Q: What sequence folds into this?
């Protein structure tokens, strides 16, 4: 039997090293867990700062002993390869593990174990944990804003209708497929507008009129981002083509437009729409605030959209242009039948990313007084009956937005992967 | 003839269209302003502003002009952008490198960090830090000292102020150090190109940066003292720290949110840049006998930086534009001071919003122009 050196493991004594090493790592983990969950300090006999460093040192020695190249043990090799390649990595591994263990009990007890969800007033929340009752009571407000409770079905129906109409393309008959682009670019926005106008605004067909000031919550986020998306896409296409045009005037107008909107922050654009825009309208012409905001965001996003589409146009090989021209196609024929169908397919992931940015930007409309989800939170927070629950509100909103944005980014990633292979 | 018509008609139509829109808008604006009795002009900039700003880098009071209020807002915007850019770069590089780590835990924690902070709207993050996280801090009298001399309280972060003697000598020494580093770099590059010799420029540079300013302390009569914030009782229940510098909670919330949010994008740029350098480059460099350090310094980094820098600058630009969200939590930045308070007082909507937008536009276009110049400079010149 060879000498047993603590810091220089070798293959000959593999059993001893791995068992002793994993024992040390286990000890360090048990120490941290008991510290975090049971509030028992197992190493209180050690002096001063050594108590806190104890699990780290023990764990490091343990991991060092387990680090044996080509040990022949599959689990051990996998561990060594993934979390224990050298001392530095081992240290980072331990630090991450320890911080997760340390943070877990606190956040768990706050969010779930000590939290309250029953009851319907502030008095129900007596525990030390989160007060989800607040979210429960305010849920409808967070979703629908100040929209009257008895009419919420109108918003739901409108959304279901609009989404259903969006999927029409999938079920269209083969001989109608050529009108698909026309449908999505022109007919669909108009129908969607009419649906939202007549159902959510009301005012006719026996539906009561609800002014846009009462709209709010998450549904307003969807309405704003939906309209901005469908309007900014065609506008962006025009400016993308304009920027690639060889007519100097059109090219420079497009460049000026794109660079202007890309150079200013959205918040100033919103300020412009709310305080400066009314000055530029004819005297007795009234435009709703929501409409002004949607126009402003559309103009703003169109510039970003244009740059994405331009990227798609640029990535097409020159041969496509030359081939279309050699067939005698003019500018519009060439773009509509050859260039755009290919380029637009390329930019779908980019457009999805722009849309993602748009959804993340919509809470900003709060600064011009539209009570979107962030605005409703600010309102609920200052309600004298519900003071002191800002944390719960923002965590709830963050989770909602995170789920939406994460799903969208994963979707756009999938699209990207899909279209990459097809080329 | 046909060709000329084809070329000119769309252009003339475009010009007409633009002119018509602008004409229509100006006409409306004119009648509207006439009706309301507002006149157009920038004369208000020199008038007395008569409002106060909570936090400013330069001397400012209500008796100063609107132009100075504008400057206060602009400086506050630049301050918060500057601090956030530094923090987000450090964080971004660490996270970006961590995402390429071979360690499963590190790689995935970094990936989740990116997914987490990237997918929550920035405004919500700012609100979270400001209204929820920072409000949970202790009041001044209960605050614990961090590092012994700084205090994190609900009223802000109190740090020691530096009291300099002969600051200019110190600054000149720093300037001298920077100039000598540039000279040294040029010399080293020349030496490498002509004779193939390497000198440890980085080591010398760091040494110069430390030694020269240090000399100024010893011989230049420079001295530095710290003014440590001290707790003072204002009334029975109200305490405050005196002395030192206090960073308002708005600034802290904004810097935290901006740098955490932007660092995810910087991390992605860094990752893409390092992944963008092909493996063959590393192997080729190693096979000509360069040491691992030299491979990193002379082969990988120059190529990776070429990929990393342009999109990262774009993110810095986005950060600067996003710093305008400060208005939502009442940090006195350009938008709040100028497009908020000043606009309310003067009612000059068109002028003030245009000035604000043009300021951001100037910042963006300047940085974009510098970036284009830099890209041209570092472009790989293919024959």
A:
């Amino acid at each position: 039997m060879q000498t047993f050196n603590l810091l220089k493991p070798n293959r000959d004594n593999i059993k001893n090293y791995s068992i002793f090493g994993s024992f040390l790592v286990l000890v360090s983990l048990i120490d941290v867990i008991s510290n975090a969950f049971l509030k028992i300090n197992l190493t209180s006999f050690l002096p001063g700062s050594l108590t806190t460093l104890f699990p780290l040192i023990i764990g490091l020695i343990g991991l060092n002993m387990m680090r044996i190249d080509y040990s022949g043990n599959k689990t051990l090799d996998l561990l060594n390869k993934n979390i224990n390649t050298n001392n530095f990595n081992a240290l980072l591994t331990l630090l991450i593990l320890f911080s997760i263990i340390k943070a877990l009990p606190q956040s768990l007890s706050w969010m779930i174990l000590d939290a309250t969800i029953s009851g319907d007033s502030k008095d129900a929340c007596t525990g030390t944990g989160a007060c989800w009752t607040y979210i429960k009571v305010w849920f409808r407000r967070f979703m629908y804003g100040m929209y009257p409770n008895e009419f919420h079905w109108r918003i739901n129906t409108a959304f279901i209708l609009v989404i259903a109409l969006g999927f029409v393309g999938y079920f269209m008959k083969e001989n109608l497929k050529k009108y698909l682009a026309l449908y999505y670019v022109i007919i669909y926005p108009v129908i969607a507008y009419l649906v939202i106008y007549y159902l959510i605004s009301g005012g006719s067909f026996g539906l009561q009129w609800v002014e846009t000031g009462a709209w709010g919550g998450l549904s307003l986020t969807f309405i704003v981002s939906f309209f901005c998306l469908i309007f900014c896409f065609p506008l962006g296409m025009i400016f993308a083509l304009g920027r690639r045009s060889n007519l100097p005037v059109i090219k420079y107008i497009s460049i000026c437009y794109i660079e202007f909107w890309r150079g200013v922050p959205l918040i100033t654009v919103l300020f412009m729409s709310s305080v400066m825009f009314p000055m530029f309208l004819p005297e007795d012409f009234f435009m709703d605030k929501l409409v002004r905001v949607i126009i402003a965001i559309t103009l703003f996003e169109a510039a970003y959209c244009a740059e994405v589409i331009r990227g798609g146009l640029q990535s097409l090989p020159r041969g496509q242009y030359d081939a279309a021209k050699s067939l005698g196609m003019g500018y519009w024929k060439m773009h509509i039948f050859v260039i755009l169908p290919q380029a637009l397919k390329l930019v779908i992931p980019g457009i999805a990313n722009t849309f993602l940015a748009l959804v993340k930007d919509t809470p900003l409309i709060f600064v011009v007084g539209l009570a979107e989800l962030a605005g409703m939170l600010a309102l609920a927070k200052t309600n004298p009956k519900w003071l002191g629950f800002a944390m719960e509100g923002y965590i709830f909103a963050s989770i909602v937005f995170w789920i939406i944005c994460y799903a969208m980014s994963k979707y756009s990633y999938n699209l990207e992967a899909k279209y990459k292979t097809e080329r | 003839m046909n060709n000329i018509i084809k070329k000119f008609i769309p252009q003339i139509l475009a010009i007409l269209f633009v002119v018509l829109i602008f004409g229509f808008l100006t006409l409306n604006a004119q009648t509207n302003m006439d009706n309301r009795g507002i006149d157009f002009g920038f004369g208000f900039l020199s008038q007395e502003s008569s409002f106060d700003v909570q936090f400013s880098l330069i001397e400012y009071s209500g008796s100063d002009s609107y132009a100075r209020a504008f400057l206060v807002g602009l400086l506050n915007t630049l301050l918060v952008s500057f601090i956030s850019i530094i923090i987000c770069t450090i964080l971004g590089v660490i996270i970006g490198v961590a995402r390429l780590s071979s360690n499963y835990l590190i790689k995935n924690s970094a990936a989740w960090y990116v997914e987490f902070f990237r997918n929550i709207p920035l405004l919500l993050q700012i609100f979270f830090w400001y209204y929820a996280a920072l409000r949970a801090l202790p009041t001044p009298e209960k605050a614990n000292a961090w590092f012994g001399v700084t205090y994190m309280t609900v009223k802000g972060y109190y740090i020691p102020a530096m009291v300099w003697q002969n600051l200019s000598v110190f600054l000149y020494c720093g300037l001298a150090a920077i100039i000598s580093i540039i000279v040294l770099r040029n010399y080293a590059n020349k030496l490498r190109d002509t004779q193939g010799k390497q000198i440890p420029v980085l080591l010398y540079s760091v040494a110069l940066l430390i030694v020269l300013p240090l000399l100024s302390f010893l011989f230049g009569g420079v001295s530095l003292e710290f003014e440590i914030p001290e707790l003072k009782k204002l009334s029975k229940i109200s305490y405050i720290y005196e002395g030192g510098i206090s960073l308002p909670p708005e600034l802290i919330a904004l810097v935290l949110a901006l740098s955490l949010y932007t660092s995810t994008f910087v991390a992605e740029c860094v990752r893409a840049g390092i992944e963008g350098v092909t493996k063959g480059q590393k192997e080729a460099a190693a096979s000509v006998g360069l040491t691992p350090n030299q491979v990193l310094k002379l082969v990988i980094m120059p190529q990776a930086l070429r990929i990393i820098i342009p999109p990262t600058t774009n993110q810095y630009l986005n950060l600067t534009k996003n710093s305008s969200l400060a208005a939502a939590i009442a940090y006195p930045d350009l938008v709040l001071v100028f497009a908020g308070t000043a606009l309310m007082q003067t009612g000059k909507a068109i002028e003030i919003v245009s000035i604000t937008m043009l300021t951001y536009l100037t910042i963006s276009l300047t940085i974009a122009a510098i970036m284009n110049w830099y890209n041209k400079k570092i472009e790989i010149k293919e024959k």
In short: The two ends of chain A are 62 Å apart (CA to CA). Chain A touches chain B through 57 residues (CB under 8 Å).
